[in-house]
Amino acid sequence: MIILPVHAILRFGSAQMQNRFICDIGDFGKYGLLRMLTGASGKDNCITLSLGIVWYLASADKAAKDGKKTRYLYDVGHRLRSCDPELFDSLREIAICSERSIACIRDSRLFPEGTAYFEEILPVPENRKSGKHSSESREIWVQRALASTRGADIVYLDPDNGLMPLGMPLSRKESVKYASLEEIARFCARGSSAVLYHHLSRRVPAAVQIDALFRRLHEYRIEGVKTCLLRYHRGGARVFIILAMPRHRDILSRRARSMVERTPWGRHFTLVEDGQILCA
Fold it and tell me: What string of DSSP letters covers 114-180?
């Protein structure tokens, strides 16, 4: 009989939630942004920032139909290719030749050498009455994510839906689709700047939701961070929240602005700082 350690069990479980999104048009924007911020692409690449990726892997909803927006990769003349030809061609090769998975991204060398990938599955709460057990399981997972990405200049957090709604208890099964402000703050507290994916609702104007995000982050007051946000206009409604620590503030601000002002990405992203649209 083979006995696997806990981390192996967590990694070998069903992790199809993010796998089904690999290479879709949202992923292209996500990876393009991370490559620009770290200096893996673009002209401002004299300084490379190290990267850690926390996938927030969860078991898949078998009825989900997301993650099918990959048709753009089959058009080599697609307007997105000019944003980052290396990224476009790499994702196209994965989509055509491979079974899409986060392992393909890890092995693609799209990000700086030494990038840390935290791929353990976030435990799903068994029931709403097991609040304490749910908190303990998630705390262990968060501690392992922190350890795995120790030393990274930037940590990218990739929950399925984004920032956890106010008042959502960890005992709810839906909590695995979100990152809490407390978790984000812990990555920042040890000196890493954070980038968070957040899905916008189609039921409320984007500007209203973006304003609410800035207010929540301002009220929580993660010490030392400066917040800006990049809204991606391709595929679903989504934003990427950048929480820059003092030592990264200038370079991340410069690269975010350069991305939307001086590269083809400017046709697909809008930069917002403190609720004000700066570049669109």
Answer: T-EEE-PBPPPPS-TT-HHHHHHHHHHHHHHHHHHTTT-SEEEE--SSEEPPTT--TTSGGGGGEE-
Q: Output phi, psi for 256, to 5 deg.
A: -65, -45
Q: Residues 115-147: pLDDT tens digits?
A: 999 999 998 887 655 556 678 899 999 999 999
Query: Is the model more confident about 77 or about 41?
Result: 41
Give, in order, the Cα–Cα distances in Å from 157 to each of 13, 31, 45, 108, 192: 20, 12, 23, 19, 12
List pLDDT tens digits, range 55-87.
999 876 544 554 457 888 887 678 899 999 999
11, pLDDT greater than 50:
no
Nearest partner of 93 among 112, 114, 107, judged by Cα: 107
How much is the pLDDT for 63? 42
CB atoms within 10 A of CB 132: 10
Give CA separation, 34 vs 41, 78, 111, in Å.
9, 21, 8
Biggest CA-to-CA distance, the chain:
60
Mean pLDDT for the chain overall: 86
CA angle 135, 201, 52 (to 5 degrees): 50
Tokens of 248: 């990264």
Task: Quickly tell me which residue has 């490379």 as its tokens.
Answer: 48
Distance CA 2, CA 12 (A): 14
- Cβ atoms of 36 and 30 within 8 Å: the answer is no
Torsion of CA 69, 74, 76, 79, to 10 degrees: -20
Closest CA to 224 of 193, 179, 182: 193
Pairing of strands 178-179, 162-163: parallel
